[in-house]
User: Which sequence fits this backbone?
C-alpha cells in the first residue's frame, strides 16, 4: 500500500474567511437584493437596526453598513443553491431594483449577478461545479473572493501571504491570467488575478479572516509597520507588500481575528428560501447541511 501524502491535509494558517464588508446607501434595496433576490438570511441577532445589516451565508457573512456605496475590485464567488430557483428570485425583485446597476447573466457554470451598486457575485451552479474545487461540497457559503490586481503583482502577493501570514499559497495561470491563490481553511480561497485594467483606487471595503497562529503573524506584520486597529483578539492591516523590497502591491483591509475571538464559530441562522406561506412544509424552515 502506498503511503498517503499527509502534506495534502495541511491547510495553512488561515482558517476562515468570515465576512466581506461593503457600505451601501439604501438598506431597503440591499434587503431586496441579498435576502429576496439571492435568497440569503439577515442575521436575526446582531445588527438588526436600520443602519447596518449582516447577511448570513453558511458559516460566512456579507456586512452592509450604511454609507456611500463601496465596490469590491473583483468579485465574490457564492454557493447559494439551484440555478432555476435563483433566476426566479432575481426576476421577482427586478421591478424593485429597476434603475440601479442590478442585473445578471447566465454562464455555463454560474450566474454572474450584479448588486444595485455594481458589486459582482459569481453564483456557482451546484450541478456544474468542478469536483476538484475546494468548495465542491459546499451547499451554502462564500467560496472565494477574487481581486483584480496589476500585472506582475501575483508573485510578490503570493510571497507576502506565504512569508508573513504562513498561508498555503499557489501560483497558477488560468484564463490568460497569472493568479495568486491563497487557501483559507479547507473550502475557501482568496484569489489575486492579474488584470491589465486593474484599478488602483481603493474605497475602504474590507474582508475578515480568522488565523490560528495569531501572535506570530501579527509580529511579522507589525515589524514592517503594517498593522493598526489593535484590540483584544484582533488587529487590521491593509497594505500587501512585496516581502523582498517592501513595495506596495495592493491595498485591501484585512480584519484579522484569533480563534479566541468571541464571534469565532458562532452558529449562523440560514433559512430555506424555497419555503413560503403558500407552499409551507413543516420542519423545512432552516437550510441544512451548509458549510
Assistant:
Amino acid at each position: 500500500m502506498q503511503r498517503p501524502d499527509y502534506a495534502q491535509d495541511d491547510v495553512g494558517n488561515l482558517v476562515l474567511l468570515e465576512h466581506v464588508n461593503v457600505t451601501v446607501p439604501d438598506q431597503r434595496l440591499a434587503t431586496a437584493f441579498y435576502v429576496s433576490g439571492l435568497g440569503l438570511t439577515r442575521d436575526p441577532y446582531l445588527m438588526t437596526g436600520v443602519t447596518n445589516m449582516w447577511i448570513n451565508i453558511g458559516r460566512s457573512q456579507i456586512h452592509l453598513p450604511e454609507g456611500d456605496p463601496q465596490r469590491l475590485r473583483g468579485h465574490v464567488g457564492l454557493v447559494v443553491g439551484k440555478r432555476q430557483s435563483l433566476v426566479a428570485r432575481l426576476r421577482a425583485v427586478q421591478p424593485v431594483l429597476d434603475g440601479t446597476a442590478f442585473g445578471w447573466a447566465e454562464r455555463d457554470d454560474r450566474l454572474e449577478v450584479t448588486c444595485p451598486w455594481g458589486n459582482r457575485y459569481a453564483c456557482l451552479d451546484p450541478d456544474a461545479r468542478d469536483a476538484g474545487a475546494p468548495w465542491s461540497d459546499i451547499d451554502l457559503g462564500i467560496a472565494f473572493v477574487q481581486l483584480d490586481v496589476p500585472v506582475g503583482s501575483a508573485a510578490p502577493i503570493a510571497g507576502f501571504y506565504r512569508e508573513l501570514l504562513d498561508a498555503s499559497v499557489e501560483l497558477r495561470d488560468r484564463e490568460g491570467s497569472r493568479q495568486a491563490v491563497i487557501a483559507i481553511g479547507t473550502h475557501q480561497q482568496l484569489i489575486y488575478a492579474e488584470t491589465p485594467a486593474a484599478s488602483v483606487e481603493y474605497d475602504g471595503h474590507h474582508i475578515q479572516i480568522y488565523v490560528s497562529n495569531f501572535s506570530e503573524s501579527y509580529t511579522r506584520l507589525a515589524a514592517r509597520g503594517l498593522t493598526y486597529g489593535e484590540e483584544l483578539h484582533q488587529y487590521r492591516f491593509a497594505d500587501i507588500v512585496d516581502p523582498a523590497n517592501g513595495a506596495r502591491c495592493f491595498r485591501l483591509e484585512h480584519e484579522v481575528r484569533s480563534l479566541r475571538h468571541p464571534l469565532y464559530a458562532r452558529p449562523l441562522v440560514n433559512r430555506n428560501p424555497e419555503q413560503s406561506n403558500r407552499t409551507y412544509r413543516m420542519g423545512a424552515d432552516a437550510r441544512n447541511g451548509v458549510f
User: Anything to note?
Assistant: Helices lie at 27-37, 83-97, 154-164, 214-223.
